[in-house]
Structure formats: structure tokens, C-alpha cells
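Hi L.,

As promised, Ig-like domain-containing protein:
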Amino acid sequence: MCRPRLQLCAFLAGLAASGLLCVSGIKIYTSGEVEAVNGTDVRLKCTFQSSITVQPSSVSVSWNFRPLGPGQHEESVFYYQNKPYLPTEGRFRKRVIWAGDIMGGDASIMLREVKFIYNGTYSCQVKNPPDVHGIAGEVHLRVVTSASYTEIAILAGSIGGGIAVMLMVLGVVLWVRSCRRKRQENLERGPQETKAPRERKDPTLCHPAEALHLYMSDEEIEIDSSDGMISEASTKDPSSEEEEDDSSDDDGGGDDDD
């Protein structure tokens, strides 16, 4: 009894290891809850991740709708395999658009001009044989008369943020252009046009032309030690002074003889 069970377990383990048996199943992700204003378009997001290589010819996508309230029957909304198959009757006729990408793992659809009768739960089922055991994802759609305050705030914030980013980018571009323009002007001027730094003049010094009156040619300046005043030195020749002394002596001697 135990041996056959062990053999079966070993066989299943070998299949799982070889990839022929999918244990985990395909994973499907949806947006959960969506709110849309009456008469507008809304995107029902559904993405998937498979452990098996995606083959566009073998992947199938099916969307179903379950209205609100008890006793309501489930209704087919959309089907895809190789190409989209749109509903030919019912409330979703000419109201569904394929908005997915199989190779990108996207199985989303778009509902056009939603009405209040679209309120309910939408289920998204994706199969990628042999990966077909995933749990379907669900999207709860609520159609309202006008957008809620939260959605308006989010929209306003998004618009304001986009404008702020654009202004920042514009400011950076203008600053870069200004720097380039100044650099180009400096290159065109050349080094010869650059102004040398202005020397600061010492107020205690004077120009040589202004100090000519301080220099006296062939004259000497004497300082009288008695009063500290500066007097002009005599320019007479010493020999002439001696001759004057002799003449004065001669005059004095003549007077004595008389």
C-alpha cells in the first residue's frame, strides 16, 4: 500500500520539477475598486503573470459581469483569443474596447459611456495553458453622478504638479541659455578688453609734478636751531665776504690816521 503511494508522489514531484505540472497557477492582478462618472469612459485594469512562457495564440482572456443585488445572473462582457470578440447583444454591445497587450501581460478593457446599470462586479480570467489554475481577479465598478472630492483633489494636484515641473524645467533651460550667452560674449571680447583692476591711490603720497616746489636748485635749506624755523641759505660766495671784510678794515684804519 505504501509503495504505490510513494511512487505516485515521486512521479508528481518529477513532473513539477520538469515544469509539466503547474503547481502555483497563473497570477492575476486587478485595480479592485473603480469609480466613474456617468457618461464617461473608464478603464478596467487587469494584468497577469504566468510561470509558463506566454504564447499569444494560446492565451485566452474572458471578462464577466455580475450586477448588484441578489438573484442577478452573470453576463459575458468580453472574450479574447488571438483577437477580441466583442458582445453582439446585451447592455455592453458597442460599449467595450480591448485595451490590453498579451505579450506585456495586460488583459485590460475599456468601457465607453458608462451608465448606472453598469454598477457591479467585473471578473477577469486569464489562461495560458497549461497554466490555467489561477484565481480570477475582480473589479468593483461604481458609477456616480459627479466626481467625488477626493478625485477632484487628486486631479487638481496632478495638474498643479505637472505645471510646477514644467516651470522648473523652463527655469533651468533659461538659466543654462543665459550662462552660455555670457560665456560666448566673454569669448568674443577677448582677453585684451578685460579691464585691469584699478589701483588704489595712497592719499599720503603726491605726484612728482605736484612736488616740484619742494625742490630748489643751487640753494640749501638751513634750520635755525633757536626757533626750529627753516630759512633760506645765503647764496653769496665766501671770497666776496672776505673782500668786504678787508675793505671795511681799510676804511676803519684811514679814519684812525686822520
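Residues 100 and 107 are 4 Å apart (CA to CA).

Thanks again for sending the construct details.

K.
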